[in-house]
Amino acid sequence: DSISSGNINTNSIWTTDETTGAIKLAISQSLDLNNQDMKNVRSILSSSGKWSISEEGVIVVEAVSLNKLCLEDQCLDEHELKGLLEMKAELINSGIYKVKSTTPVVETNSLQGNDPVVESSEIQGDASITEEVLMVDESANNIIDEQPTTTEPTITEEESETSPEPITEPTPLPEPEPTPAPEITPEPVVEPTPESESEPISEMISETTTP
Predict the structure, then answer these.
(1) Which helix (H) or strand (E) is 70 found in, with range?
(2) Tell me: the pLDDT tens digits for 14-41?
(3) pLDDT confidence of 109, banded at 50, 70, 90?
(4) What's the Cα-to-Cα distance from 139 to each of 58, 115, 136, 142, 143, rounded to whole Å?
(5) What are the phi and psi torsion angles at 171 (to 5°)?
(6) Which of 106, 86, 103, 82 is nearest to 94 (CA)?
(7) DSSP secondary structure string, 31-58?
(8) How far is CA 154 from the centre of its chain?
(9) CA 82, CA 53: separation in Å to the nearest integer?
């Protein structure tokens, strides 16, 4: 309040550089704001130059010590961060997690004439290698993209002359013939034999005794 009212001699507190307009404390003591705010500050730069706060809100420091790291609504403490790092190390050791390598491999070859061919490949861990071939046409000064060609397998004469194996069709099973039902033969009816009339005994005796 005394400074704002102009009742204090400011020359005993700080000095002003008339050329640059910089204000410096006249005595080497710390500045105590007495629990007041510091407003309209554009940027802060340390005397050592090892840390700073820019006007855009970028903080540059050599080390950060904190209890919790928050990115928007996601926060991590010491134990959670340690667990994530250990899990990543286990995945790398097991071979599931593949580290991407962006080191380009450049090979220069020459075709017929003076047209150079540049082959570049990008290796991604154990994944497949993608190659791109560029042909330079010096006459037209144009770069022509050559599409990768696919080589068809060569069929030898032995393979071409070999006749295909005949396809064996399955033999159909014979259908079972229906068994005819047995015919029922009626039993013959036995007719009674007629009894012969017996001759008189007297006649039979007379016939036997007659000379």
Answers:
(1) strand 68-71
(2) 777 778 878 777 777 777 788 889 889 8
(3) low
(4) 52, 10, 9, 8, 11
(5) -75, 125
(6) 86
(7) ---SS----S---EE-SSSS-EE-TTS-
(8) 34
(9) 29
